[in-house]
Amino acid sequence: MIETSSLSPKKDYFAPMHTAEHILNQTMVRVFGCARSKTNHIEKNKSKCDYFLPTAPSKEQMHEVEQLVNEVISSRVSVRAEVLTRAEAEKRIDLSSLPPEAGDQVRLVYVGAYDVCPCIGKHVENTAEIGRFKIISYDYADGRLRIRFKLEN
């Protein structure tokens, strides 16, 4: 499990689920061109993320999202964290959603070359530790897509 003592997690997320959420977020960005989930609920048994889209996704698109997340997981990529100054991190990624009170030290979490984002949560060391990603359900209303998911062994 990846932890950084200088930036300890604010919430003790279940590492495999939290890492799967990072992969889901990047997949949603790539498939739909939307922003990462800003509202989510990450738990050990099941989780949910909200995304804002102009139209409802098709059943085929949601199946594609599930497949793409599982492809990344099965690729057995390493997950690593790096702590940088905010100025250095801004040279690498967009930090506009990071609040100023986050401080001058930023912890970036990399899921191989697939995803990088600021995060203070716990993560697996390799995606092989996650298991199979399964979308349980999803619904779309008023521009918000809510995806509920779980991990299977």
Strand arrangement within the widest β-sheet reads 1-2-7-6
Overall pLDDT level? 91
Low-confidence stretches: 2-9
The profile of the biggest β sheet is: 4 strands, antiparallel
Q: What is the terminal-to-terminal distance?
A: 18 Å
Specify the number of helices: 3
Shape: globular
Strand content: 25-35%
SSE topology string:
HEEHEHEEEE
Regarding quaternary structure, what we see is single chain
Helicity range: 25-40%
Number of strands: 7
The radius of gyration is 15 Å
Structural class of the secondary structure composition? alpha+beta
Describe the structure.
The protein starts with 14 loop residues before the first helix and ends with a strand. 27% of the residues lie in helices and 30% in strands. The protein is α+β, with helices and mostly antiparallel strands and 153 residues long. It is built from three helices and seven strands; from the N terminus they run αββαβαββββ. α1 crosses α2. It has a four-stranded antiparallel β-sheet. The protein has a three-stranded antiparallel β-sheet with strand order 3-4-5.
